[in-house]
Amino acid sequence: QSALTQVASMSGSPGQSITISCTGASNDIGSYNLVSWYQQHPGKVPKLLIYEVNKRPSGVSDRFSGSKSGNTASLTISGLQAEDEADYYCCSYAPVSTLIFGAGTKVTVL
Amino acid sequence: EVLLVESGGGSIQPGGSLRLSCVVSGVTIDEYAMHWVRQAPGKGLEWVSGISFNSVTIGYADSVKGRFTISRDNAESSLYLQMDSLRPEDTALYYCAKDARLLQIGGGFDSWGQGTLVTVSS
Question: Beta-carbon neighbour count of residue A88 at 10 Å?
């Protein structure tokens, strides 16, 4: 069970779009459409942003979108806002009945 | 509103045991898988264990396999984690989380508790 690979940090200016990548393997991200993404502000509980690759829970801004290609999943934040400054984690289902997180990406809004 | 409340954390010496509990309200958990996710101080999220709605399917992270046991009591809307042979590296905030997917494991975690802190140190 190796952690999914995420870049440690990214930054963008308000209004810009950024895309966070999450690379796994053929037997996790590559095999299942069960990728989810979470936002975590310092000292706060993680919040589900995307589930099953590209579905948004009720109440989550449509500025957040998810996609997948091969063994890599992506989270795009459009129209970056100051409140988007947080840590972002991807997670994938993996054999057998396990889940695995990425190491997290710290997003800074310049 | 879905509410998850964990309890049972504390300070324990290496080799000791703790049992975490999570009580869920606002949703009927007998249709959802449930999970434990932990976060060491200043570190990222780590999935620890998950259990299907009917307790038939159970999974563990390699880091806890053979030491931790997950269970649930749907009648009590409760989730448990028995942690044995604790190590310093198990020190973390332990979150209880509800699966977003009906009946099956893997849909993501759509509701989280506030966490209970476990500290393993001599």
Answer: 24
